[in-house]
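thread: overnight batch results

M.L. [08:02]
morning all. the overnight job finished for the chain we discussed friday. pasting input first so we're all looking at the same thing
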Amino acid sequence: MQNARHQELARIGMLASSGKLDEAIALTERHVRLGSKDAEFLRVRALLEQRAGRMGAGYHYASAAEAIESHPDTLLFLAHADSNAGRTDEALDRCRKVLAAEPGSVAARMLMAQALESAVRVREANEVLDSLAADVGGRDLALQARIDQLRAMLLVHEKRNADAVALLDRTILSDGAPATPELRRQGWYLRAKACDRMERWDDAFESAAKANAIGEPSFDPAQYQAGVAALMGHWNRSSMREFPTSGSATELPVFIAGMPRSGTSLLDQVIDAHGQAAGVGEMAIIEHFARHLESVWDASLPAPDSFGPLRDRAFRNAASAYEAECRRQAPGARRVVNKALGNNRIVGLIARLFPRTRIIHAIRDPRDVAVSCFMGGFNNDFYPWTARLEWIAAAWHQSRVLMEHWKRETDLPIIDVRYEDVVTDPGTQFPRVVDFLGLEWDEGCTRFHESRRTVRTLSYDQVNRPLYSSSVERWRHYEKFLRGVEWPEYR
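M.L. [08:03]
and the structure it wrote out:
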């Protein structure tokens, strides 16, 4: 019996190593059904879900495993998830438990430093890195490179931008440095950020260009446009009448849609500061359900047959799971806002899952969006259009086309919120957003920057500052690089 168990675990490991995650996950199914007490298989399932990009599902299985038997792997998984969700103190507590079981654990200490850096707790992060660097003593060059990268990030937090650039140039970005391509890419983006803050505009842009060139990302604007057109062709008012629905009556979920770097994190923070609302950041549960739908979708069949086995019951289950996760993360909240990057593509699906939701459409000058995305350090594998200015302009235009489509083809209330208006006239725009959510005004929204919540976003070190308007028309610093691009009309 035990031998068969080991063989099954070995087979799961082989499938996962060869990229066959769905098959590996399927083999765990009988061991992780509701009420399972098999901590080892629950732990394995959590790690598989993580590799598949389903952190919410992974968190569920890891929590179940940890409740049965504490283990460093599940603690690290949960700590990583807590850190990504902005639950810094919870992440640190889990890391300390790992260190109690495995004194000196490099993984736990690095995760602690990363969580502290994300929370801009510079002194504490440096203390962890000092201890780790002393133990490493230059023997592990790859680990030393990761430490140096974090050091540079902390220097930027301290406004020691020239020191950050010097450290990056000497270590991560030097010829022959023991840094992975991904670490070098992050290093160039960080260098761009530091140079931008020193008003070394040309140096900043050239650093970002070097970052975006790594991996040679590819993007076809015409193909992207065709994909958006196909999406709108499937998800229109006439077709959606026959689509599955959850029948949910909840008003709890709220979604922010639009292009990244359009003030989505700022809106998230303002809403989270309301006493009856909360933000859950970029929770991707609905996006994962959308990908599941895509995997079974058969456009040759009429709805609802085109959805294969995913009918009303699947939609009810997805809506219930999402609502339950919102209530777990924000107990007592009347509105919970989600700003996942892909929300603009799935508004139709959201309408079938939550007919009484509200959509906040964040909009910003495409040139400012382009500069911010180009220099921001997105994952070019998932968002290859961020690697070139003309690609960002094309994606921005398609996002607007999509949002206008959803306004016509769904009955959801959708409000346009322009970044420039929010930062220059918060006295009007903050109450406008709160009123749209059906809530009474709360003065706490004006003090959003006082929150101890850690926001997982490229602008995490900005949204915890008082409101500022210096990012409006930031593109003018880079105007010469923007010439020749066909920019969509704005306003």
